[in-house]
Amino acid sequence: MKKITLLSLLMASSVALQAQKKEEVKDTTATSEFNKWTIEATVGQAKGVKPYAVGYFSSDPGAFLGKPQANSFSLSGRYMLSPIFGFRGSLHYDNLKNIKDNGSKPFEMQQFGVGLEGVVNLSRLLGIQENLNRFGLLAHGGIKIDAMTSKTANVFENDHNNGATEWNGGLVIGITPQFRITQKLAVMLDVSVQNNYRQHFNWDGSYSDISNNLNGQLITGSLGLSYSFGPNDIHGDWAVIRDKKSDEIEALGKRIDDMETLMNDTDKDGVPDYLDQENNSVAGVAVDTRGKMVDINRNGVPDELERYVDKTTKEVTQQSNEDMVKKLINEGYVTTYFDTNKSTPTNVSTEGIDFMLTYLRNFPNTKIEIIGHADEIGSSAFNNNLANKRAEAVKAILVKAGIAADRMTVVTQGEDSSVDPNSDGARKLVRRVTFQVK
């Protein structure tokens, strides 16, 4: 039997090793299975915050949100080096002017620029991607270089630098909420703040006062679309990237579960269920390598039980058949087993109930006690109640099979302390119902 068990473990280990090799091959590509390239296009409003010459400003103070206008357009390409971090290059055009009849002197400033920024997928970084579902959140920051061209008419000689172009540079930061509307297409809302550190012009086209120290500020709010390119069916910002270590732990757990399942031995005859051709053999009766009870003379009675019956018959020659069967019952050879915390007999242990049904039918004047047992796991009160439920369940089965209820008495034995409570296998032997013939 030990040889069979060892061989089974070796076979299971071999299968698990082959499965591990396949999973390792899969894991090596897991982190690259997301679309890294994304193109983005936006339209929105760019608003020069400062500096302005006296009498110039862009918003309408009396209008809701300053009467926004679409004057900013951008096209960007983004490449993610990892699921969390990447870079973005952008082209943008802004046309800043005062709102009509807002009280400002008229001005117009055109701005063409390029940008290079780092992009962080905050949803992944913060570990909230699954909670956000179709929503996403990006943060970005980097540098921008712009060509500012004044289109404001000169009042005095070249006082607003009409037609002159000035190069300007600064740093930009922003945040971009997203919502995925199809597998690869998402709508995005971006809010960015650009701080310039080489801005000679005011936003109205005149030269900035020396006290401004070449500083300028621009705020942009825009709405756009992003489209992800690549072999994956879903947008790269939402792709599910499984952690390799988590996969390895999950695969290891599955292999252990599979091996435990392979080595289950329902009838406790020493032969694992996957090799056992008779997994309801009587406890304590010898079995062969296939789990079948040994019956050399092929008379339908296991040899070990047959030898016991023969020995008993010789020792008590005048003992009746009823007394012989009664002794087998009272000494615990007829038993029904239960799973943990269950009061329904297991599928493979109904043989004991069937034996008692046959016995009670053949001896209609006999009365019996149905004795419930439980293991020591849990409180004594709970186990006493569970043992009672098990005995009641067996009684109910016999009643439904035609045995009068007054012929059977339920007895609660409660916890059985005859086995090691720390052994799962031993506890299975005491979760049972036995019988006593009165």
Automatic annotation (TrEMBL):
SUPFAM superfamilies assigned: OmpA-like, TSP type-3 repeat
Residue ranges constituting the OmpA-like domain according to the UniProt record: 325-438
Keyword Chaperone attached: no
Pfam families attached to this UniProt entry: OmpA
Keywords in alphabetical order: Cell outer membrane, Membrane, Signal
A single GO cellular-component term on record: cell outer membrane
Domain of life: Bacteria
Signal peptide span: 1-19
Membrane found in the keyword field: yes
GO molecular function, one term: calcium ion binding
Matching InterPro entries: Bact_OuterMem_StrucFunc, OMP_bac, OmpA-like, OmpA-like_sf, TSP_type-3_rpt
Compartment annotation: Cell outer membrane
Protein name: OmpA family protein
